[in-house]
Write a structure and sequence with these properties.
The complex is a heterotrimer of chains A (783), B (442) and C (157). Chain A contains 24 helices and 32 strands. With 783 residues, chain A is of the alpha/beta class. In chain C, helix 2 packs antiparallel against helix 3 and helix 3 crosses helix 4. The chains are: A alpha/beta (783), B alpha/beta (442), C alpha+beta (157). The structure holds flavin mononucleotide (FMN), iron/sulfur cluster and FE2/S2 (inorganic) cluster.
Chain lengths: 783, 442, 157
């Protein structure tokens, strides 16, 4: 520890602290622009100059290490003189166009210039003008306002993992820019808007939409991936205008993914559904709530009378709230059915009934302390942008990260080892890792692995895990959606056991944990005989309730889903949006998106995060939990008397808690079925289906700016060079991909990171909605 | 020139730069002695301390002391880096050293590597002197072939790799940490210090950086002893020093003289002021050093202490001579433009301030000056100096302050009369263009 | 695309640095590419960046930071004249003026026949030889009085 005195206050700080760190501790504010606690130190703005006793000149607090006995004055005459001098320099070339600047009201330059600026400028020469840059659909530029703090450059390098911005030219001609003709394509790009201390980088979707002081700030939680990023939603005239991060070091730190930040645009889009709709005699018409709900009640009763309660099934999105999921399953069960599920993309349910409630298996914040990590089956960067960011930072500090996956997408993480295998070979490859790890640890592997041969990369991964002290094995979305998910689960668990690792799941969606907690599955605790999502669709029901989901895009097998729904007598769709329910539903109900209802998401670490509505529901929209409650009443079911979402939550959770304690990844007695690898597929190819980041849920799909990004490019039939050559195709060729009875017309594309004999066709997109399951055999031919 | 020193000692005509020439002149004797006698590293650093050799790159930091900062027990790579990025206006000595005596620099660097336990070195050579860079690479090949460089030098267990890296047109890369960034393949933007290169240098490893002339002085010191070197100069100012004389003299060039030589003698060696005109001012240590009026300068001897006492700096030993045909406003304008153009753009006071300084001086030169401009210039330099990451901010400010201080009347004349004290055709005649004898080399 | 010869030269530059520090060769690689192509186009910079495994924008930072890289096409002979103070005292500016008149172009301009480009340079470390000029970054010409300039221009074909 070192002793330092700042503005007369004595404190002790750890070795290696800077004067800025120490000032934070005593609550002294030192003006600054380039310094940011999550970025490397640049010390270029010089705004943080302070007086240090015995130093001949003022020193930058952000970069000056504390030495024992140091005396610092942050507001002495000489410190303030230096700070004012810097402020004058910062302003001489600044346009001072605050009245038309989007940063107005939240500009650090504006704020500080009030305290440190002079009233009149002594600079009477011509001001610099800098050309604006096209950074893509999300970030707008006004480069003349740039003060060259290089925070944005450092962000792309250090946090996003790829230097997409640089400071070109030099001296006064220096300009922040992407490479010529390039844009900033990171899935984390929006953070540079927050980081920019002036109005040089602003939100393109928000541009000129409002002045910041007209906005009210409301807390919320992101409804996308399993992280549950904390949000500040900014509202004007009952409209969501902008979304910013709410800092939470344990969850999203101070960041947001672009999906968290910009998907709000969907809320204000013309694709919103505003009134209940009823289809009668083949005609859709708008009706009032009473009519719609009565219709549903009567028709449900009719179906049950004619076909029994088992004929009713409910499908929910894992982005629905805990409260909604709880009431949905209660409703279905009240009707006498156990057919309810939110795991729409899952295909192997053989662990149901074994008391599994998958979760991360540890705290998110604990990732930084891991020294070895294996991620299995995950499009990590696009599925979990901020978790990937955490692993990236960990890797920089020395964590050895390995990956076993079906595609070698660039994670922008320096990987220790990687193994890329076809989906059908994934389990065998993981078995090889288990076996090699057992050898490395000198323990015997499960007898079912007797014939498994560990590959070279499997050995490397195993050796890395075996040598760690704080190890974790995570299963990603693809592993959870895989037809051998239970085998992957069992193997990963064995691997964790052998290497002393934690074992967890990267939760796919905002409420992948909450769905289990709400009981929105056919029977987690004992086999209650209900049907899971796949069964409900392969063995069609007469009536379906569809909550927040778009089965044609969200289900493991969209073709099958559509067939089942179209054959049903009654389909009730609850959604904030106009969806393809118009093709198969009988009733469509406009329910609130997360901004228009209170609710709860339980994130992948089991953290319970509740939020309030930030705006009033649009038009006739109603919160889904209220709709379900009224429906329960209408159907004469018991237990639908809750008068608030808090009451529903209390019922679902059995009390209030910050974290859910009963989550469990551990399962016993699972048969390991390594299955037949590729040969069975000949002459077909094996499908690899990622769910692209901006097609993963209803909001993202409808956010216009996100849809203009490179990540939202239309899916193609991607293959490696060998596979393309085998089919006699060149990249760009038009191909017909057929699977089951359906097909899709796509462009062939080269993806060098794929295994042989695989074709990658994204799920979640209209273009592929005619195809079958996300996994399995497909045929590709030139059209 | 010549006989007074040892670095450029071979007379013109005998100046073979090849390894054989250097060996004939006694080259590599120091290295051979060290290897043969297994002289301990401490002893070498001790000789350097005794010699009172001060860095020839501008700051005059004692070299022996600098070498002693290198962590001895550090595991892994450590680097020796030579700064041949000579770009300070007025300085052209390192070019001549590398042109006529590249092996002396190589030998100095190998000895440095030995003394500080470094296995690798780089010489960063100014981009504009391409033929010198190429020659240096050839000299390296010669040294490698003779087992003077590379693994197991002269059969010992000491190995040292040395490479040349060229600049490509950025003055700031002469600043030692910008130079390191540049070797790392980045823009030459200086680093904030601390940490200093001795603990965090090239690729984050302990590194010592010295000027070309500094390294070139090392072999002689080892061969002849630190005390002998000190005796060549005066106390605290050991050795001989190269002075690059440019501007209004009859025979511009490099002159190697003992430290403490009177300026008047140097001027004489350079053939005196051109066409017998009157000396007006001298910048004694490269463009970043404060200018001194003729009378003050004529009283100085050439060593760190004397020139510091007169209010300027010995710097890199670049003596820019200006006679009575010089317009001091125009001279300052050109220097201010230089710093403005060469600021790396990283830190606010330098990026913004150098442009401000230049624009105001430019205005004055062009007859648009205002009465308050001189105070404004001084105040802007106040806000730059001591507040930047590297010393370029100071380098840009010192000329402005000293020109205004010593030649205020001339600036005021410009502002009031909107014209130059020295008629333009007089200035032109002073330059010698169209009249100087033709001795072009190309 | 760069020629095999250029790539070979770049490889030998890469070899000067530790194995994990390929980026150190970027200055040399850009210089080699420029000598081959005459100037550094966006594609050339991207090629060099790709070859060294660095982000293109980082290579662009370097290419735009150092004066001797040309980000725009230049004439067959790029003549850079030092006009800094020490040179100016001995005719540097006048030499530049002389060239401007003879070639009929200003600084940063290229003659209509694409033969000459004129640039203003900063200190080249040769102030004692003023006027000094640099041809195509590699050939330094000293004491360039009018006759010498005439001779140089006549040599350039
Ligand atoms: C703007 C600036 C330019 C510099 N240029 C040079 C240079 O061209 N050559 C040089 O040797 N040192 C130069 N220096 C000084 C170096 O930073 C460093 O002090 C020197 O190389 C150390 O070597 P020495 O101790 O042998 O003098 C410069 C410093 C600054 C701030
Ligand atoms: S003082 Fe100038 S040259 Fe030095 S770091 Fe700052 S901006 Fe760059
Ligand atoms: S905050 Fe310290 S220099 Fe910018």
């Amino acid at each position: 520890m070192l002793e330092i005195e700042i503005d007369g206050q004595k404190i002790e700080v750890p070795d290696g602290s800077t004067v800025m760190d120490a000032a934070h501790k005593v609550g002294s504010f030192i003006p600054h622009f380039c310094y940011h606690k999550k970025l490397s130190i640049a010390a270029n703005c010089r705004m943080c100059l302070v007086q240090v006793e015995k130093a001949p000149k003022p020193l930058p607090a952000c970069a000056t290490p504390v030495t024992n006995g140091m005396k610092v004055f942050t507001h002495s005459e000489s410190a303030v003189k230096a700070q004012k001098g810097v402020m004058e320099f910062l302003l001489i070339n600044h346009p001072l166009d605050c009245p038309i600047c989007d940063q107005g009201g939240e500009c650090q330059l504006q704020d500080l210039s009030v305290g440190y600026g002079a009233s009149a400028s002594r600079y009477q020469e011509e001001k610099r003008v800098v050309a604006n840059k096209n950074l893509g659909p999300l970030v707008a530029t006004d480069m003349t306002r740039c003060i060259h703090c290089t925070r944005c450059v450092r962000f792309t390098q250090e946090i996003a993992g790829l230097m997409e911005l640089g400071q070109a030219f030099r001296g006064e001609h220096a300009e922040i820019m992407p490479f010529i003709e390039k844009t900033v394509d990171s899935e984390l790009s929006g953070n540079i808007i927050d980081l920019c201390p002036v109005g040089a980088l602003t939100s393109k979707p928000f541009r000129f939409a409002a002045r910041t002081w007209e906005l009210s700030r409301r807390k919320s939680v992101s409804p996308h991936d399993g992280l549950g990023a904390n949000l500040v939603v900014q509202v004007k005239h009952n409209k969501v205008m902008r979304v910013l991060p709410l800092e939470n070091e344990d969850v999203n730190e101070c960041w947001l993914s672009d999906k968290d930040r910009f998907s709000y645009e969907a809320l204000n889009s013309d694709q919103r559904l505003t009134r209940p709709m009823l289809k009668q005699c083949g005609e859709w018409r708008e009706v009032d709530w009473q009519t719609a709900l009565e219709y549903i009640g009567n028709d449900l009763k009719r179906v049950i009378k004619e076909h029994g309660a088992q004929a009713v099934g409910a499908l929910a999105s894992p982005q629905a709230t805990l409260e909604e999921l709880h009431l949905l399953q209660k409703l279905v069960r009240g009707l006498g059915s156990n057919n309810v599920d939110f795991r729409l993309r899952q295909s192997d349910f053989s662990l149901d009934g074994k008391n599994v409630m998958p979760w991360l298996g540890m705290k998110i914040a604990g990732i930084r302390d891991l020294d070895r990590v294996l991620v299995v089956g995950s499009f990590l960067r696009k599925d979990h942008p901020l978790l990937a960011q955490r692993l990236r930072q960990a890797a920089k500090r020395g964590t050895k990260v390995s990956i076993l996956h079906v595609a070698d997408d660039d994670l922008l993480i320096s990987l220790n080892a990687r193994s890329i295998a076809a989906p059908a070979a994934l389990a065998t490859e993981l078995a090889g890792i288990v076996k090699a790890a057992a050898e490395a640890k000198g323990v015997s592997a499960d007898s079912s692995l007797a014939n498994v041969q560990a590959s070279e990369s499997a050995r490397r991964i195993a050796a890395s895990l075996a040598s760690g002290e704080n190890v974790a094995v995570f299963l990603g979305n693809l592993a959870q959606q895989h037809p051998q998910a239970s085998t992957l689960h069992a193997l990963a668990q064995q691997l964790a056991g052998i290497t002393g690792a934690r074992f967890g799941f990267l939760g796919e969606a905002a409420n992948s944990v909450g769905g289990y907690v709400a009981g929105a599955t056919p029977g987690v605790n004992a086999n209650e005989g209900g049907m899971n999502a796949a069964q409900m669709l392969s063995d069609p029901r007469k009536a379906y309730v569809v909550l927040h989901a778009e089965p044609e895009l969200d289900c493991a097998d969209p073709q099958q889903a559509m067939a089942a729904l179209k054959s049903a007598d009654l389909v009730v769709a609850l959604s904030p949006f106009k969806t393809r329910a118009i093709d198969y539903a009988n009733v469509i109900l406009p329910v609130a998106p997360f901004t228009e209802t209170s609710g709860t998401f339980i994130n992948t670490e089991g953290r319970v995060q509740s939020f309030n509505a930030v705006v009033k529901p649009l038009d006739e929209t109603r919160p889904a939990w209220k709709v379900l409650r009224v429906l329960g009443n209408l159907l004469g079911l018991a237990g639908f008397e809750q008068d608030s979402s808090e009451a529903v939550r209390a019922e679902a959770l059995g009390g209030k808690s910050e974290f859910i304690e009963r989550l469990n990844n551990k399962v016993e007695g699972v048969a390991i079925n390594l299955g037949e690898a590729a040969p069975a597929l000949q002459p077909h190819l094996e499908r690899i289906a990622d769910v692209p980041i901006y097609f993963a849920d209803a909001l993202a799909r409808r956010a216009p700016s996100l849809q203009k990004t490179i990540d939202a490019a239309a899916p193609a039939a991607r293959m490696n060079a060998a596979t393309l050559a085998k089919l006699g195709l060149a990249a760009g060729a038009k191909v017909r991909v057929s699977q089951g009875g359906g097909e899709a017309l796509l462009d062939a594309a080269l993806d060098a990171g794929l295994p042989d004999n695989c074709v990658r066709v994204a799920a979640g997109h209209e273009l592929g909605a005619g195809l079958g399951a996300m996994h399995g055999a497909v045929a590709v031919e030139r059209t | 020139m010549g006989a007074l020193g040892f670095i450029l000692s071979p007379e013109e005509g005998e100046r073979g730069w090849r390894l054989a020439d250097y060996v004939r002149r006694g080259g590599y004797a120091a290295l051979k002695k060290i290897i043969a006698e297994k002289i301990p590293a401490d002893h070498i650093v001790g000789e350097l301390k005794k010699s009172s050799l001060r860095g020839r790159g501008g700051a005059g930091f004692p070299t022996g002391l600098k070498w002693s900062f290198m962590p001895r027990q550090f595991p892994g790579d450590k680097y020796v880096v030579c700064n041949s990025d000579e770009g300070e206006p007025g300085t052209f000595k390192d070019r001549d050293i590398l042109r006529w005596n590249p092996h002396m620099v190589i030998e100095g660097m190998i000895i440095a590597g030995y003394a500080m336990g470094c296995q690798r070195g780089y010489n960063y050579i100014h981009g504009e002197i391409w033929d010198i860079y190429k020659r240096f690479e050839e000299a390296l090949d010669e040294a490698r072939a003779a087992n003077l460089l590379g693994p197991n030098i002269l059969g010992s267990d000491f190995s040292f790799e040395l490479q040349a890296h060229h600049g490509y047109g950025a003055y700031i890369c002469g600043e030692e940490t910008a130079l390191l960034e540049s070797i790392e393949g980045k823009k030459g933007q200086p680093r904030f210090k601390p940490p200093f290169p001795a603990s965090f240098g090239l690729y984050g490893k302990p590194t010592t950086i010295n000027n070309t002339e500094t390294f070139a002085s090392v072999p002689w010191i080892i061969t002849n002893g630190g005390d002998k070197f000190l005796e060549l100069g005066k106390p605290n100012n050991g050795g001989t020093k190269l002075f690059s004389v440019s501007g209004h003299v009859n025979r511009p060039g490099n002159f190697e003289v003992p430290m403490g030589t009177p300026f008047a003698e140097l001027l004489e060696m350079a053939g005196g002021v051109r066409a017998g005109r009157k000396l007006k001012a001298v910048i004694p240590g490269g463009s970043s050093a404060p200018v001194l009026p003729a009378d003050i300068m004529m009283d100085c001897t050439l060593d760190y202490d004397s020139i510091a006492k007169a209010g300027s700096m010995l710097g890199s030993g670049a003596v820019i001579v200006m006679d009575e045909t010089t317009c001091m406003v125009k001279a300052l304008e050109r220097l201010s433009y230089f710093y403005f153009e060469e600021s790396c753009g990283q830190c606010t006071p330098c990026r913004e301030g150098t442009g401000w300084l230049y624009r105001v001086v430019h205005r004055i030169e062009n007859g648009l000056g205002r009465r308050e401009d001189l105070d404004l210039l001084n105040s802007v330099t106040d806000n730059i100096m001591g507040r930047t990451i590297c010393a370029l901010g100071d380098a840009a400010s010192l000329p402005v302050r000293s020109f205004i201080k010593h030649f205020k009347a001339e600036f005021e004349y410009h502002i009031e009369r909107k014209q130059c004290l020295v008629p333009v055709d007089v200035q032109r005649a002073g330059s010698g263009f169209f009249v100087a004898e033709a001795k072009a080399t190309c | 695309m760069l020629s095999q010869e250029a790539l070979k030269q770049i490889d030998s530059e890469i070899a000067k640095y530790p194995a994990d520090q390929k980026q150190s060769a970027v200055m040399a690689a850009l210089a080699i590419a420029q000598m081959e192509k005459g100037w550094l186009s966006t594609e050339t910079i991207e090629t060099v960046a790709g070859y060294l495994g660095m982000p293109p924008v980082a290579a662009y930072e370097v290419a735009s930071f150092y004066n001797m890289y040309d980000l725009q096409p230049v004439g067959r002979y790029k003549i850079t004249v030092c006009t800094n103070l020490p040179c100016a005292l001995s005719g540097g500016v006048h030499a530049a003026d002389y060239l401007k008149r003879k070639l009929g172009i200003g600084f940063n301009e290229t003659t209509a026949d694409g033969k000459f480009t004129l640039k203003e340079g900063e200190c080249m470390g040769a102030c004692g030889d003023a006027p000094v000029l640099l041809v195509n970054n590699v050939r330094m010409c000293s004491f360039m009085q009018p006759e010498a300039i005439d001779k140089l221009l006549a040599e350039c074909t």
